[in-house]
């Protein structure tokens, strides 16, 4: 039985202004992964103080964290399991509430 192996690629991740203090004020950082989830996991390994803002205690991405792959909402792709290609760009967009 063959199992598909995830191949890690390098991607850039745009960091929203509200979270930049956790990436040394960098608006964009590099991460590696074969899927969106693995790239975000790598991001939080490189910038550990981001983890609690992106993941809940169970290790799942928080529901208010929206992720876009090359400007397309990943909810309309394969979600956080969407495969990445070298040079893809992710954007993390926290949902904003107010009124």
In short:
The chain has 99 residues and is an alpha+beta fold. Helix content is 15%, strand content 25%.
Tell me about this structure.
A five-stranded mixed sheet has the order 2-1-5-3-4. The model has no long low-confidence stretch (mean pLDDT 90). The chain has a single domain (9-94), classed as Beta-grasp domain (Ubiquitin-like (UB roll), Roll), CATH 3.10.20. Strand 3 (65-69) and strand 4 (72-73) form a beta hairpin. The protein is of the alpha+beta class and 99 residues long. It is built from two helices and five strands; from the N terminus they run E-E-H-H-E-E-E. The relative contact order is 0.24. The protein is 15% helix and 25% strand.
> What is the highest CATH level, the class?
Alpha Beta
Low-confidence segments, ≥5 residues, pLDDT <50?
A: none
- Percent range for helical residues? 10-25%
Shape descriptor: globular
Tell me the Rg in angstroms: 13 Å
Number of helices: 2
Spell out the CATH superfamily: Beta-grasp domain
The ordered string of helix (H) and strand (E) elements is: EEHHEEE
| CATH architectural grouping | Roll
Largest sheet, described in full?
Answer: 5 strands, mixed
Count of domains: 1
Total E-strand runs: 5
CATH topology: Ubiquitin-like (UB roll)
Q: Which class do the helix and strand fractions yield? A: alpha+beta
């Amino acid at each position: 039985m063959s199992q598909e192996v995830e191949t890690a690629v390098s991607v850039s991740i745009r960091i929203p202004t509200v979270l930049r203090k956790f990436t040394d004020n960098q608006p964009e950082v590099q991460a590696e992964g074969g899927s969106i989830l693995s790239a975000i996991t790598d991001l939080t390994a490189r910038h550990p103080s981001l983890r609690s803002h992106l993941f809940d205690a169970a290790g799942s991405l928080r529901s208010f964290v929206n992720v876009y792959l090359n400007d397309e909402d990943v909810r309309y792709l394969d979600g956080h399991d969407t495969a990445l290609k070298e040079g893809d760009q992710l954007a993390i967009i926290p949902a904003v509430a107010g009124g």
